[in-house]
């Protein structure tokens, strides 16, 4: 082989080796170009855009590449039903129409007939001319419908122009990520920080109680037996004032005796009555003959009356003993005690067993009228002067998401205690309020805010947005649909479920009002780091 030929072969081999690594890069460039609309590997990647908008009962969080003439730009639109402030819901049905309206009034429309998956639509926009425009998305569906203006957009003539116009990234605080897929699985909602008129107040613990005179406990006045066969009251039963709740046949008169003894006493009483009647008759004859003074006649008549009363008593005792032994209810003789309800209301306690023997003082039935209640708040002595003329209060109880209130329109302030409790160092402040449907129950513990009558205007957020972070009141401020900043705040006046923010949140910023605690836990556990999903 000639030296010239050997040199040519060597050069060819070196060129082949140099070209081999380029093949994978080319393939990667093809995949990348497919993802963003067929751009060649030489073209730079278009900058990403995002927007978060609340409008028409919807939350739209959308990510998309910068719009370029002729290039397909998929809009990854996350739609959330934001009508309920207590919890947003993922949109699971509908179609989306994206409308690109240019400055000259012309429009281009792009439709996503169905969801990519729950909550996410992906209409593909392909602009035909450069310039500024307005991008609007219309959601139509059975669950919720609405129109959201995503705002002004720019359609660039080339990818290079889009890249050149992209703003430089600014260094700053790293936001906390909480993906839509995570939000949709929890009770999540956001709310804006906005100006509010708040009432000054004092916090206190309280308890719901029956209105004075609108509850009663019925106890056994004597030892007795509950008759078999009578109607038995039960827990939750509605009763009317004066209604018989329990009939009780006394047993103490017959206790410790047998039937023969009772019958003997009744027979003796009848015999003594007969003797007394004969004595009266004899005394009348002797008085008529002036053989005895009138005083002796009067004494005979009194003895007859006493004997008659004893007969009546022994006969009643005998009847009572027989009814007690047989279990039969008493008749018109009135031998039984009737315990009647002193108020209209509901039976809150019942311990009535037919045939049972009860002791004196034993509680049998309790009745309470639940239509109106008292809220008794225990105010610390240092705050008593502030609430002496409190116009009302707001309170929450376990098991209810909403806040209850009482003011001069719905209720009244009943009293402010005049003595400080020596143990708790508190003074009771009592309000009366209506209780429609009886949803509130006497005995419930309440967290109370007593209004002082002062008003404050300031930027406020829902109290539910504030979480404790190592002793510091903290909120999560939305930076975008899936990114948040953790901020310590300085709270001010609390009123009506809202809290004034003196520092930490500006007017117009949105905070996580539901799910803040779950977001705090996820950040502590490192569960939400970056955008871990793909579309």
Account of the protein in words:
With 535 residues, this protein is α+β, with helices and mostly antiparallel strands. It is built from seven helices and 34 strands. Strand 24 and strand 25 form a beta hairpin. Helix 5 packs antiparallel against helix 6. The radius of gyration is 44 Å and the shape is elongated. 30% of the residues are buried.
Structural descriptors:
disordered N terminus; 5-stranded antiparallel beta sheet; alpha+beta; 7 helices; 9-stranded antiparallel beta sheet; 535 residues
Summarize this, please?
By secondary structure, this protein is an alpha+beta fold. The chain contains seven helices and 34 strands. The chain starts with a helix and ends in a 10-residue tail after the last helix.
Largest beta-sheet characterization: 9 strands, antiparallel
| Beta strand count | 34
Helix content, binned percent: 10-25%
Which stretches of 5+ consecutive residues score pLDDT under 50?
A: 1-41, 325-334, 527-531
End-to-end Cα distance: 60 Å
Say what oligomer this is.
Answer: single chain
| Share of β-strand residues | 35-45%
Backbone structural class: alpha+beta
Mean pLDDT: 84
Query: How much is the radius of gyration in Å?
Result: 44 Å
Our count of helices gives: 7
Overall 3D shape? elongated
SSE diagram, text form:
Elements: H1 3-19, H2 22-35, E1 48-55, E2 58-65, E3 73-74, E4 76-81, E5 89-90, E6 95-102, E7 107-112, E8 120-121, E9 124-125, E10 131-140, E11 146-155, H3 159-165, E12 176-177, H4 180-183, E13 189-192, E14 194-210, E15 215-219, E16 224-225, E17 238-239, E18 244-250, H5 259-288, H6 294-326, E19 337-340, E20 345-350, E21 357-358, E22 363-368, E23 372-380, E24 393-397, E25 404-406, E26 412-416, E27 426-434, E28 445-462, E29 467-469, E30 472-480, E31 483-488, E32 490-495, E33 498-503, E34 510-514, H7 516-525
Antiparallel strand pairs: 1-2, 2-4, 3-9, 4-5, 4-8, 6-7, 6-10, 10-11, 12-31, 13-34, 14-23, 14-28, 15-22, 16-18, 16-21, 17-20, 18-19, 20-22, 23-27, 24-25, 24-28, 26-27, 28-33, 29-30, 30-31, 32-33
């Amino acid at each position: 082989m000639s030296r010239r030929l050997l040199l040519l072969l060597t050069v060819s081999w070196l060129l082949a080796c140099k070209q081999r690594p380029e093949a994978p890069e080319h393939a990667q460039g093809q995949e990348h170009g497919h993802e963003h609309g067929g751009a060649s590997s030489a073209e730079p990647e278009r900058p990403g855009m995002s927007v978060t908008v609340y409008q028409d009962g919807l939350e739209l969080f959308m990510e998309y590449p910068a719009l370029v003439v002729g290039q397909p730009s998929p809009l990854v639109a996350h739609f959330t039903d934001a009508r309920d402030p207590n919890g947003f819901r993922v949109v699971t049905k509908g179609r989306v129409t994206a409308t690109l309206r240019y400055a000259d009034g012309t429009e281009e429309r792009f439709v996503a007939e169905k969801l990519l998956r729950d909550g996410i639509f992906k209409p593909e926009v392909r602009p035909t001319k450069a310039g500024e425009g307005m991008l609007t998305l219309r959601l139509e569906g059975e669950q919720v419908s609405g129109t959201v203006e995503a705002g002004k957009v720019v359609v660039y003539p080339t990818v290079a122009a889009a890249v050149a116009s992209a703003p430089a990234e600014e260094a700053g605080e790293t936001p906390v990520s909480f993906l839509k897929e995570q939000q949709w699985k929890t009770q999540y909602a956001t709310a804006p920080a906005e100006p509010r008129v708040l009432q000054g107040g004092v916090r206190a613990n309280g308890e719901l109680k029956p209105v004075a005179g609108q509850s009663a406990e019925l106890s056994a006045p004597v030892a007795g037996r509950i008759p078999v066969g009578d109607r038995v009251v039960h827990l939750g039963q509605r009763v009317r004032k004066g209604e018989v709740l329990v009939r009780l046949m006394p047993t103490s008169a017959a206790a410790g005796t047998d039937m023969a003894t009772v019958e003997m006493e009744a027979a003796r009483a009848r015999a003594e009555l007969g003797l007394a009647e004969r004595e009266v008759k004899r005394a009348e004859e002797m008085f008529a003959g002036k053989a005895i003074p009138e005083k002796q006649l009067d004494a005979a008549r009194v003895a007859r009356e006493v004997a008659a009363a004893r007969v009546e008593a022994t006969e009643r005792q005998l009847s009572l003993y027989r009814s007690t032994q047989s279990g039969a209810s008493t008749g018109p003789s009135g031998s039984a005690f009737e315990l009647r309800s002193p108020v209209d209301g509901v039976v809150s306690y019942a311990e009535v067993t037919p045939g049972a023997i009860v002791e004196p003082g034993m509680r049998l039935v309790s009745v309470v009228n639940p239509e109106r209640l008292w809220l008794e708040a225990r105010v610390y002595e240092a705050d008593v002067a502030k609430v002496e003329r409190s116009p009302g209060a707001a309170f929450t109880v376990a098991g209810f998401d909403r806040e209850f209130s009482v003011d001069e329109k719905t209720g009244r302030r009943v009293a402010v205690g005049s003595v400080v409790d020596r143990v708790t160092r508190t003074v009771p402040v009592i309000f009366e309020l209506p209780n429609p449907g009886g949803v509130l129950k006497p005995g419930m513990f309440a967290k109370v805010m007593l209004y002082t009558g002062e008003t404050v205007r300031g930027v406020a957020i829902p109290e539910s947005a504030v979480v404790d972070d190592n002793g510091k009141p903290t909120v999560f401020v939305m930076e975008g649909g899936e990114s948040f900043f953790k901020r310590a705040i300085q709270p001010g006046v609390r009123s009506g479920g809202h809290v004034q923010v003196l520092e930490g949140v500006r007017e117009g910023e949105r905070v996580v009002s539901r799910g803040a605690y779950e977001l705090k836990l996820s950040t502590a556990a490192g569960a939400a780091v970056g955008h871990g999903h793909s579309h």
